Amino acid sequence: xNKKKKTHVPFRLSILFFLVFxxxxxxxxxxxxxxxxxxxxxxxxxxxxxxVTVNNAVPRGKMYDRNxxxxxxxxxxxxxxxxxxxxxxxxxxxxxAEKLAKLIDKETDKITERDKKDFWIMLHPELADQKITAQDxxxxxxxxxxxxDLYKLQLERITKEEYDTFSKEELEVLAIYREFTSGYALTxxxxxxxxxxxxxFARVSxxxxxxxxxxxxxxxxxxxxxxxxxxSVLGKVSSSEEGLPSESLDYYLARNYSRNDRVGKSYIExxxxxxxxxxxxxxxxxxxxxxxxxxxxxITPGQRGKDLVLTIDIDLQQATEKIIEKYLLANxxxxxxKFLDRAFVVMMDxxxxxxxxxxxxxxxxxxxxxxxxxxxFALGNIxxxxxxxxxxxxxxxxxGYQQGAIQPGSVFYDTKLKIKGTPAKxxxxxxxxxxxxxxxxxxxxxxxxRTAINIGGGTYIPNHSLSINPKAFxxxxxxxxxxxxxxxxxxxxxxxxxxxxxxxxxxxxxxxLSIGQYDTYTPxxxxxxxxxxxxxxYRMKPHxxxxxxxxxxxxxxxxxxxEEITPTVLNRLPMKDSWIQHVQAGFEKVTMESGGTAYQxxxxxxxxxxxxxxxxxxxxxxxxxxxxxxxxxxxxLTIVGYSPADxxxxxxxxxVPWAYQRHTTDHHMNKLIASEIMxxxxxxKKERAKQAKAEATxxxxxxxxxxxxxxxxxxxxxx
Length: 719
Description:
Number of strands: 20
Distance between the termini: 144 Å
Shape: elongated
Oligomer: single chain
Helix content: 25-40%
Structural class: alpha+beta
Number of helices: 24
Radius of gyration: 38 Å
């Protein structure tokens, strides 16, 4: 009889089953504990969202002239943008860039060598790894190199042959990709906003569903209604590609700007950046764990920048520029004007400091083609300085009064001064006995020399040495500064220069200082100086912004006044009113009395002008000075004035540096320009008065017709 075999499980296998049972039991218990104790917490973690606040830029404020003609506006542009969500992988952005490149044309001129190398590494990761040797990796483990160092080695070892193999299509993908990566997460980044065609805009719009992060919007760019007129003073704005200027990066980032924000780079745009920039739209984006935006909330609605109303009269500005251009071109044809290449005109209200025109033109010749052209150089009114000649003699006479060197009516005998060891110094001719008013009228140098000698405590004896107190230089310069000469005018523009002061203190240099042939001044300083005399002794701060206005949506309207720039008195001349009035009388003789140095150009006008002409012996200091081994002698021409002579409403300064060579004929370009700009001023004034009268008459007729209709309606109702 066969015995039944006994089956049994080996003891070790039983132990294994038991351990598995215990482990599963522990796992179940643990999961149950977690479910009960931490279930809610982990559910919240799964559903967790993040709040990210971003700022979206708004258009800048506009600029208008004093008569509310728009000068700088925002031109709308179709734009394609990319908004990167948090945690977006490079591969995802590259895939989107490749799709977008098939829909739009993208310029590739901004791509750098570094961009190409980075892109090559992204497209060829295996080849990039081969750039790193085992020895390099060993140095990382030993702490001699870092992972960042390895990446630098990869970049260095990529050859030009390798990174220059990209096709045109691949470069377009790279150009788009670099725009994708240049912005912050959740902040729209401009991919293309110049020359976006309607076809491109429509294509992208149709494919937005397959282009994660890509969007379409309306962007803006600055437009200038008067082309290049005053453009250098209006300033520049950085492009969306430039973003914040590197030299001011920390300044703007500390003020909550984004790196790709456009800001004013120069002059008015920069000076009034905080006003023009506007209030950004502040948006709170709520994202889930994957970085997708699940909700957006507007915290603060955006508002475009405030508008600026400038003091500039654009009609007068343009007319003045044409006059300058006309005489620059005409006089460049003469044989004695090889250094003449620029001219400046500043016109301002002497009672408020409002700058009506700030015109400057420069004659340039292309070094390659040889073609000549005239370019805007309005900035030269505050950034360049010149010896101004006799135009400053009003300050010399008033300084003489203040220092007790002369009195109103003092007489000197005008003949050449002969100082031992120096060439004779005199006026353009001997005038004999003259007083202060005649000295201004005929522009006597000798009268100013004798005044300066007295200020310096010297005594003039023909053919003897002259000794003066060197402190007289400081005395005269401090007095000139009260008029605005040799100091910053305070105009609301950056980079204003003060001019140059001579360093020698010999007696002859003091005499040169007294007739404007030693220190240098800017055209704006000259305008401030004559305005100070015109208004009775108040140095007014020049300003180019008249009002700041609130922005409005309607382009046909102008917002309410947010701030009005009020006139600022920088100082009052420490001089008697009678002294100032005496110099004013002398200035009027210059232009309105026969024999005055500007009478030929203003004597027959239907309006009155008071002023002072100037001619300075100078040395050429322009862009071609390095071509000459010796200093080149030349003449600067100037004229300052104001009108009407008895109740000034406009002051002007005309400066023509390096106008002609010495010992040749004066072409009077300064006086011709001054005469024509004043004609233009009164012509515009007359036209506007006529227009205002016509508008007022029309308004009265309209109101009369309204009243008549109202009366007829009431009469009909009563019947």
